[in-house]
Amino acid sequence: MLIARVRDALAQRDAAVDALDLRAGRLLTEITALRWAPAREAAAACGISVREAARLRGLAKQAEQPGQVSSPAPTVDGATTASDEE
Q1: DSSP conformation class of 80
Q2: What is the predicted pLDDT for the residue at 69?
Q3: Is the pTM of this model over 0.85?
Q4: Stronger pLDDT, 85 or 58, i.e. the higher one
């Protein structure tokens, strides 16, 4: 019983991290698309490496590909995430 609860908690954590990575990638993509800052400067301002910024933007791009099911990822409490527009 406890092992199943630990596995469930870890799965929820992983889903939350995936959702937050996707959100960060979408926001980084928006920053560079609006030309607020070049990708390198945006990464530095966010405190991440250029490689990590590219990975996050790649996740966002992959999620937007035709044929991909775009559904909100579950949060830690099992609800779905809110829109990225705040």
Answers
A1: B
A2: 52
A3: no
A4: 58
Instruction: Quote the CA–CA distance of 15 and 76 in Å, as a whole number.
Output: 7
Q: Nearest 5°: phi and psi at 74?
A: -70, 150
Residue 85 lies in a domain: no
Q: Do the domain assignments include residue 74?
A: no
Q: What is the pLDDT of residue 81?
A: 43
Task: Give SS3 for 28.
Answer: helix
Give the count of domains, the chain.
Answer: 1
Q: How far is CA 80 from the centre of its chain?
A: 13
User: Residue 56, SS3?
Assistant: helix
pLDDT score of 36:
86
Domain containing 21: what range?
A: 12-63
**Is the residue at 17 inside a domain?**
yes
Instruction: Report phi then psi at 14, rounded to 5.
Output: -60, -40
pLDDT of residue 67: 73
**What residue type is 46 in one-letter code?**
C
Is 51 among the domain residues? Answer: yes
